[in-house]
Amino acid sequence: MKIRAKRPSVAVFPGTFDPITNGHVDIITRCLSVFDEVIVAILVNSEKQPLFTTDERIELIRQAYRKNPRVRVDTFSGLLVDYAMTVGASVIVRGLRAISDFEYELQMALMNRRLNPRIETVFMMAPESYSYLSSRLVKEVFHLGGDVSGLVPPLVERRLQEKSPPPGHTPSRRRRRRVR
Ligand code: PNS
């Protein structure tokens, strides 16, 4: 009897990641308990004006996972399902924070299924403690002088300070207002 080696299960976790937050980190951790490999795929979108360049976003995620060979970081453009096929992934993972995410995510999942029925979208629930967390809010809160520690990996926080010190900003932690 021939014993065939099982193909590793690969999931793509796509997004803008401008920047990666602890909500994304939580979803990646959940992916690792289900799939052999996770490809964090950053959408290169010329229409959006991101705070972090594509290379910076790649570096921030790579640094967070430098000790984990099961997490790969890549970029893509064009159709997500086409990208998933080229990297041998049969699953797209998206995080759901609240009911408000659902409609948009359902539309994307159904469109992706229509485009390629062989690719399945799997939703993972973010913890309640991150249900309000988004890259957009992190940037806004940071820019207005709020404390984002605990919401993003420490390197992201440092890079935010280097990149976008808010007006009159003093890099002292005590001066930052904590946002809950
Ligand atoms: O972090 P985001 O902005 O929520 O991620 C959105 C993303 C990258 C998952 C979505 O914009 C996407 O899949 N873009 C690729 C274009 C595509 O495949 N569109 C058709 C299917 S909806």
Largest sheet entry: 5 strands, parallel
Spatial ordering of strands, largest sheet = 3-2-1-4-5
Rounded to an integer, what's the Rg over CA atoms? 18 Å
Low-pLDDT sequence parts = none
Helix-strand sequence: EHEHEHEHEHEHE
Number of helices: 6
Task: Report the β-strand fraction as a percent range.
Answer: 15-25%
Helix vs. strand class: alpha/beta
According to DSSP, the number of beta strands is: 7
Overall 3D geometry? Answer: globular
The residue fraction in helices comes out at 25-40%
First-residue to last-residue Cα separation: 59 Å
Give the names of the bound compounds: 4'-phosphopantetheine
Average pLDDT reading = 91
3D structure, described in words:
The protein has 180 residues and is α/β, with parallel strands linked by helices. The chain has six helices and seven strands. A five-stranded parallel sheet has the order 3-2-1-4-5, with helices on both faces. The model has no long low-confidence stretch (mean pLDDT 91). The structure holds 4'-phosphopantetheine (PNS). Residues 14-16, 43, 79-80, 108, 111-112 line the site of 4'-phosphopantetheine (PNS).
